[in-house]
Design brief:
The complex is a heterotrimer of chains A (409), B (130) and C (143). Chain A has 409 residues and is mostly helical. Chain A contains 17 helices and no strands. The longest helix of chain A is centred in the first third of the chain and has 44 residues, at 67-110. In chain B, helix 2 (51-58) runs antiparallel to helix 3. The model of chain B has no long low-confidence stretch (mean pLDDT 80). The chains are: A mainly alpha (409), B alpha+beta (130), C mainly alpha (143). Chains in contact: A-B, A-C.
């Protein structure tokens, strides 16, 4: 019974922790401009992250070491350094976006300017990283993030034309008045939002933090294969809400408040309150994860002690990196750069960096020295390779499309 | 431990160093090789770890910058990167196990400095994660 | 090699003369109208929410403040562009008239919301649907 409960908890926290500010922005903006025609990208992204997260989790579970830890051993110092620089930069940008997102969520609830909350949020994020036990942190914010289920509830209560929504998703076509380059640019952004690099690093390091062993392999798989797709459904619910309310009116969402309109109109005050809680939990949880991931990636490359499973005094440089990253992220937001814009850039650049961040995972997961008999199956390798090829194409196309579409405008 | 062939030594590079308590103590950033008197293959006499060692291996402009940072962070005038005598190595697996605690190693200088001057001063730094 | 590049650049620069400006100006006008329409439609949805008692005052205020800012900044950006010719002048005149209507109403809504007078919002928002429609038509015609 206890086992069942813990598995259920793992799945629920995976669902609640899936959506972050990148997904909120990407799905709302895409739904408003392109309806459901890019829903397939979310599906592709979810399958991709399931594939690589399971791999990264398996690596950590079987070898006892986080996947990034092993990248340097397997690929050499130089290649691993390139990987580190790309991953760290992207994760840092995402951290700044999440901190901005938390501040925006609080602004929506209080009507006080979001900039005033940024320092408070940064200190709170750091305090949780410093003091709160890892699994408590994960469970609390994962479960609170489940509040975002309200987007699906709102959708259901609207009794929308499901046929129309599904039709738009299943027969993707660039809507009238929109160009192909913009469509593909948004596809890249959606992919980057669904397959954010930090999630895999965090998942792997988290497995070590929580002391997973071979006995937890099945739990790892259940969390990923059930939790992540259900989380992806929440992303699609956001897209559908935007399709129903924003697209027909030509609303171009540039504010977090607009992402809340569909739920507000469908469910009223209670729905809105739950949604704002969900926005807060999702972004705060992601800020924690990205802050920690900044620490994990640097520490795991250079080899110094990392993790919340030791006293902070025993992992001083790890905590220093995380602290500086959070402070720097907050400073970036305080420059009054629009957090939504920071988010947009972070997801697109994430997509461009994906091959660099995912290739090492595939390599390490195939290494019998670390994995023993739990190396990738042929099917996993085949699918993984297909994804890497796809991500390679995406990476090459990103910057030209960004220039061509003026970053999607 | 002495007498291992050079190719095997190269396999040691970039591996994780783990001290006798299971704590992470850096990576094998470089190796110190000594040619024995009287000929024969070079022997690994020490593991070099830390930004100074890594920067030399990485080379190029990035390596030079990293080395400049490392030199600034190092106390005293010694110009050499942190050195772990090979005699201290207890076990070679996918990670390199050491027979001593990391506090006894030169490689712990930066970590100790960070602990003593920055992180260790914050309240709760010494609290066990429970 | 370098001379070829300079020649290419000069040619490209020459081609971005007055002819292109007119078309660019018109499309900028269209984009501005679309942005303003988006702000107006957002405000309309917020007012719908107010009418149905569906949202908290703070949230409604935030939405209306942002809508006013969006419309205002779209107008500000557009007004800052130099109209290249007389036809552009006329375009600018027509669009500014629409934008003034939009921003005026959005301002009234923002002021009322900030004062907590949410019951007045539906009445104040009466002109919005017409403005939204005209802005939308403008955007389609010139975007």
């Amino acid at each position: 019974m206890k086992r069942l409960l813990s598995v259920a908890l793992g799945i629920l926290t995976a669902i609640g922790g899936f959506v972050d500010i990148g997904d909120i922005v990407a799905n709302t903006e895409t739904g408003a401009r392109f309806g459901m025609s890019l829903a397939w990208v979310v599906v592709v992204g979810v399958v991709g992250i399931c594939l690589f997260a399971e791999m990264a989790g398996r690596v950590a579970t079987v070898s006892g070491r986080a996947v990034f830890d092993l990248v340097r051993e397997r690929l050499g110092a130089r290649l691993a350094l390139v990987n580190l620089l790309a991953s760290f930069f992207i994760t840092f940008l995402t951290l700044a976006a999440e901190i901005g997102g938390v501040a925006l969520a609080i602004e929506l609830a209080t009507s006080v300017n979001y900039l005033l909350f940024v320092p408070v949020v940064a200190v709170a994020v750091w305090l949780v990283i410093w003091r709160v036990k890892f699994d408590l942190m994960e469970n609390v914010f994962g479960l609170l993030g489940l509040a975002l289920v309200v987007t699906a509830v709102a959708l259901w209560r609207l009794h929308p034309d499901w046929g129309g929504l599904l039709g738009g998703a299943v027969h993707p076509a660039v809507p009238q008045g929109e160009g192909h380059p913009s469509w593909w640019y948004f596809a890249i952004a959606l992919l980057g939002a669904a397959m954010t690099p930090y999630e895999v690093f965090f998942f792997s390091s988290g497995a070590v933090e929580e002391g997973w062993s071979r006995a937890d392999l099945i739990t790892n798989r259940l969390n990923v294969y059930i939790g992540f797709p259900l989380g992806g459904l929440l992303s699609l619910a956001l897209m559908a809400g935007a399709t129903l309310f924003l697209e027909p009116r030509g609303i171009e969402p540039g504010h977090l408040s607009q992402a809340a309109l569909p739920t507000m109109l469908a469910l009223g005050k209670l729905g809105l309150a739950v949604l704002l809680l969900g926005f807060f939990a999702a972004t705060f949880g992601a800020a924690l994860e990205t802050g920690l991931s900044c620490g994990y990636s640097i520490a795991q490359y250079f080899g110094f002690q990392w993790g919340k499973f030791v006293r902070p005094a025993d992992a001083p440089r790890f905590h220093l990196v995380a602290m500086v990253a959070v402070a720097a992220g907050a400073l970036l937001v305080l420059t009054t750069l629009d957090p939504i814009t920071v988010t947009e850039y972070s997801i697109v650049l994430s997509a461009a960096a994906l091959p660099l961040t995912y290739l090492p995972i595939l390599v390490v997961a195939n290494d019998p020295d670390y994995m023993g008999d739990k190396v990738n199956s042929r099917f996993t390798n085949a699918l993984g390779t297909v994804y890497l090829l796809l991500l390679g194409v995406v990476a090459v196309a990103t910057i030209p499309l960004m220039v061509l579409t003026k970053a999607g405008s | 431990m002495a007498g291992r062939v050079l190719e095997a030594a190269l396999q040691l590079l970039d591996r994780q160093l783990v001290d006798k308590h299971g704590r992470l103590a850096g990576k094998v950033d470089d190796l110190e090789l000594t040619f024995p008197e009287g000929g024969g293959p070079p022997q690994v006499t020490a593991i070099l770890a830390g930004p100074g060692a890594l920067s030399r291996r990485l080379g190029g402009r990035f390596g030079a910058r990293l080395e400049a940072v490392a030199n600034r962070l190092r106390e005293g005038d010694d110009d050499h990167p942190a050195r772990v005598p090979f005699a201290v190595v207890a076990e070679i697996g996918s990670a390199i196990g050491l027979g001593v605690a990391k506090a006894e190693l030169e490689t712990d200088r930066l970590e100790a400095w960070t602990r003593d001057h920055l992180i260790g001063r914050l309240p709760g730094a010494g609290d066990a994660p429970d | 090699m370098r001379r070829t590049w300079v020649a290419v650049l000069l040619l490209v620069a020459a081609c971005t003369g007055p002819v292109r400006s007119s078309g660019v100006y018109e499309s900028k006008a269209g984009q501005t109208a679309a942005a303003a329409a988006s702000a107006v439609e957002t405000a309309m949805l917020a007012v719908d929410g107010a009418r149905g008692g569906k949202a908290y005052g703070r949230y409604l205020t935030q939405v209306l403040v942002e809508a006013e800012e969006d419309a205002g900044s779209a107008q500000g950006t557009f007004d800052g562009i130099q109209p290249p010719d007389q036809r552009a002048d006329q375009l600018r005149g027509r669009l500014d008239e629409l934008l003034d209507q939009a921003t005026g109403t959005l301002e009234d809504l923002r002021i009322a919301a900030r004062r907590g007078r949410f019951a007045e919002l539906p009445e104040l928002a009466r002109p919005l649907p017409k403005v939204a429609e005209r802005l939308g038509d403008f955007a389609e015609a010139h975007g």
